[in-house]
TrEMBL record:
Domain Probable transposase IS891/IS1136/IS1341: residue ranges: 74-177
Protein family according to the UniProt entry: In the C-terminal section; belongs to the transposase 35 family.
Domain of life of the native organism: Bacteria
Coiled coil: none
Official protein name in the record: Transposase
InterPro entries: Cas12f1-like_TNB, Transposase
Record key words, sorted: DNA recombination, DNA-binding, Transposition
Residue span, Cas12f1-like TNB domain: 205-270
Segments for region (Disordered): 274-309
One Pfam family here: OrfB_IS605
The species this protein was found in: Streptomyces hebeiensis
Length: 309
C-alpha cells in the first residue's frame, strides 16, 4: 500500500529506535527505525511480508544525479551457470569476478523441504497448517534478505570504477530461447533441488538489475542491456559462432582457433562486446567526438549484430 502525498505525511521520532508516521485512513503508525531518513519524505510504502509489516520511505536527498561517470572502465556481466554473476574481466584461476552467495543454508533447506512435506499433510485451515506456513515464511524472509544484500553488494562492486555495465536482456532471451543458446546451458534447476521452490533458488537477476540501476545513480554509470543471442557460442578470440565450442557448462574451447576460457567468462566478454559497440567512455570536453551511443535504445539490433559477428 503506497501513500504518495509526501508533504502531508508527518514523521516523528519517538526515541532512538522508534518513530511514528501519520498515514491517511490508518492514523499514527509506530515503527522501528533502522536508519535516519536523510531527506524530505516523498512517499511511504507499507508492505506485508508474512506476519511482518514494513514501511519504506522514498526520500528526496536533494542530491543531483551526476550526469556522467568519471570512471573509465566498462564491464560485461553474465548470468553464470556455476556462479550467480560472472564479469567479463573474471579470472577462473583466482575466482576474481565470480560473484555468488548461498541464500539458504544446508540446515534451512532441509528444514524447508521437511516443512513442505508436512504442509501437504496438514488439514486446510488448521492451526498446524498456519504454524507450518509461518515457519516456511521465516526461512523465505531470510533468503530474500540475503539475496537483497548480495545484489546490493555485487551491484556496488560492478558499478565502482566502471562507466558502462552491460547485461543480458532476459526478455529478449525468453523470446529467442532456441536461438539464444539456452540449449547449451540446460538445467539451472537440477533434480536434487527440486524440493525447494523457485523463489528460494532464484539468484535474482531482475533484482540485480534494479540494484545496479540504483547504485549507478550515484556514480553516473550507464547500464545497458543487450540481446544475449549467441553470447555463449561466440569465440572472443576469432569471432566464430559454433554451439560445439561450448564443451560443457563450464568449458569453452573454440572449434576454430585455440581459444579456451571458462564458459561463463566467455558469455560476459561477448555481452560486453555487444554492449559497448559505439560506446565512448567519458573524456574531457572538446576531445571526444560523435554522439553517445547510449542514446540508442538498450539491446538494439546493431549491438546484437556485432555480437553474432
Ligand atoms: Zn576462436
Amino acid at each position: 500500500m503506497r501513500f504518495p502525498d509526501g508533504k502531508s505525511l508527518r514523521v516523528e521520532r519517538l526515541s532512538r529506535k522508534w518513530a511514528r508516521v501519520k498515514l491517511s485512513k490508518l492514523g499514527w503508525v509506530r515503527f522501528r527505525i533502522h536508519r535516519s531518513l536523510g531527506g524530505a519524505v516523498r512517499s511511504v510504502t507499507l508492505r506485508r511480508d508474512g506476519g511482518h509489516w514494513s514501511l519504506s520511505f522514498l526520500v528526496d536527498t536533494g542530491r543531483a544525479e551526476p550526469g556522467v561517470s568519471l570512471a573509465r572502465g566498462r564491464i560485461g556481466v553474465d548470468r553464470g551457470v556455476a556462479s550467480a554473476v560472472v564479469t567479463s574481466d573474471a579470472d577462473a584461476g583466482s575466482g576474481a569476478g565470480f560473484f555468488d552467495r548461498k541464500f539458504i543454508t544446508a540446515g534451512e533447506s532441509e528444514r524447508y523441504v521437511r516443512l513442505q512435506r508436512r504442509l501437504v499433510r496438514a488439514r486446510k485451515g488448521s492451526r498446524r497448517r498456519q504454524r507450518i506456513r509461518a515457519a516456511m515464511a521465516t526461512i523465505m524472509r531470510r533468503v530474500r534478505r540475503r539475496r537483497a544484500d548480495f545484489q546490493a553488494q555485487t551491484a556496488r562492486r560492478l558499478v565502482s570504477g566502471n562507466a558502462l555495465v552491460v547485461l543480458e536482456d532476459l526478455n529478449v532471451r525468453g523470446m529467442t530461447a532456441s536461438a539464444g543458446g539456452t540449449a547449451a546451458r540446460p538445467g539451472r534447476m537440477v533434480a536434487q533441488k527440486a524440493g525447494l521452490n523457485r523463489a528460494i533458488l532464484d539468484k535474482g537477476w531482475y533484482g540485480l538489475e534494479m540494484s545496479l540501476r540504483n547504485a549507478a545513480r550515484t556514480t553516473g554509470a550507464r547500464i545497458r542491456k543487450i540481446n544475449p543471442a549467441y553470447t555463449s557460442q561466440t569465440c572472443p578470440g576469432c569471432g566464430q559462432v559454433d554451439a560445439d565450442s561450448r564443451k560443457s557448462q563450464a568449458e569453452f574451447g573454440c572449434t576454430c582457433c585455440a581459444y579456451t576460457e571458462h564458459a561463463d567468462v566467455v558469455g560476459a566478454k561477448n555481452t560486453l562486446a555487444a554492449g559497448h559497440g559505439g560506446y565512448r567512455t567519458w573524456s574531457p570536453p572538446g576531445i571526444g567526438r560523435g554522439r553517445e551511443a547510449s542514446t540508442r535504445p538498450p539491446g538494439s539490433r546493431r549491438a546484437t549484430a556485432s555480437a553474432a559477428g
